[in-house]
Amino acid sequence: MSYGLLIRNDNATVLISSETVNPVFVGKAVLSQSIAPIPNYTTYWEYRYTVSNCPDLPLVFATCGDGAKQVTLGVESIGSDQWRIVIASTGSAPEVYVFRKYDAPMAAAGDDYGMEVYTSTGASCFSTRSTNKYLRLVYSGLMPNPQSFMEWRSSSWSGGWLLIPDQGSYSLVPGVGMTKPIMCFPYAGMAGLGVVKQSSSAYDQYVYLMGARYSGGTLTFMVDAYSAQRGLSSGTTDIYGNAPGFILMSDGAFYD
Amino acid sequence: MSYGVELRYASGSLIFGPGDIGTTIVGALSAPAGASGSLSFPELAGVSVYGVAIPAQAANGWTQHVHYVSASYDGDGVPTLSWTASGYNGNMDSTIYVIAK
Questions:
Q1: Buried/exposed A149-165: b ≥16 CB within 10 Å, e otherwise
Q2: Residue A156 forms beta bridges with which residues?
Q3: pTM here?
Q4: Prior bond to A23 cis, omega within 30?
Q5: Which residues pair with A248 in a beta bridge?
Q6: B41-96: per-residue pLDDT in tens?
Q7: Is residue A201 one of the residues assigned to a domain?
Q8: Domain co-membership, A34 together with A57
């Protein structure tokens, strides 16, 4: 940048910039429905949440039970500033923290102290008078690319769904103490329930769940795969070239 | 603290501490189902970016997801974010939050 304001912390990441905005906390989503087990996915429960007063696409963070596998399946607009958030987890219903982008002044009383940053268009992009807490990250990590994993195929399989768990797992150790870790699970490269890969020649159907689990301070990226219908050969290696994604961590204690 | 940035609200609670990791949003992009795209951010020369792809969820449970969100940088450090979105059952568009790091 050749003008404006850019504040980086000692880890060289951007804290405040006149070219960007910071995510702010909207509130905790409310659990509205638990579906157990998810049909054909017997180890996962599907949890549905709703959040209101969120005019922007929600950026979802969630707690994760110790050892549980979890993935955010998606968000759906269900009304004015209202969203449904769907999470699949092998554990109990997580607590869900919702953030959105800060895009308008949220000034509190008093304009003679603090700091306010404006973009070149004159819009406020950061203010210490914000009435919504800003997202504080304590860890961000690049997940490794699974590259490929073995699909289960059998010419004798005639239907139904089989779980092929832990096709790949890669440990990341954040190395920071947190009171209540909350994670923005990887979206990039993620396949969710209902996403079916079809091969017209073999008429195979697969569902991939790519998410994370957090246990004992260690974060593990995981891939579960399901096979729906029989294929033409067994033990076929599938190159599922999902790109590495970021996983973000914060501390729910900041917002409780 | 001996270095870094510490910002506090008027209430005295911490906004950012020296050990925090910054994550600021550049903007949101629509990723049409089945399409690829890329966008450069010359105003962010020298700043790393990445994309958080947020899948769209339909009422019937189908999910639209995004593959291949990656960033590259030219010789001047100008970042470009590229993505490919898969489309299934309804061609729902996903959204990518572009985040500066």
A1: bebbbeeebeeeeebbe
A2: none
A3: 0.81
A4: no
A5: A140, A184
A6: 998 888 888 887 777 666 555 555 555 677 889 999 999 988 876 544 445 667 78
A7: yes
A8: yes
Query: Whole domain around residue A80: which residue ranges?
Result: 6-137
Read off the amino acid at residue A113. Y
With CA atoms as reference, the chain A residue closest to B16 would be A136
Query: Both A173 and A241 in a single domain?
Result: yes
Residue in the structure block whose two tokens are 């911490």: B14
> Residue A14's closest CA among A115, A129, A135?
A135
Domain boundaries, chain B: 22-100
CA-wise closest residue to A27 among A66, A81, A78: A81
Q: What is the mean pLDDT of residues A19-46?
A: 82
Task: Write out residues 6-25 of A within 8 Å (CB-CB) of B.
Answer: 6-11, 13-17, 19-23
Q: Residue A121 gets which letter from DSSP? A: T
Which of residues 29 through 88 in chain B touch A, CB cutoff 8 A?
Answer: 43-47, 50-70, 86, 88
Residue in B23, B30, B36, B60 to test binding to A, most A beta-carbons within 10 Å: B23
| Placement of tokens 């729902």 in the chain | B92
Whether A89 contacts chain B with CB within 8 A: no
Q: In this complex, which of A14, A58, A136 lies closest to B24 when CB atoms are compared?
A: A14
Burial class (CB in 10 A: 0-12, 13-18, 19+), B75: exposed
Decide: residue A51, CB within 10 A, 0-12 exposed, 13-18 middle, 19+ buried: buried
- Tell which A residues from 204 to 233 touch B, by Cβ distance under 8 Å: none
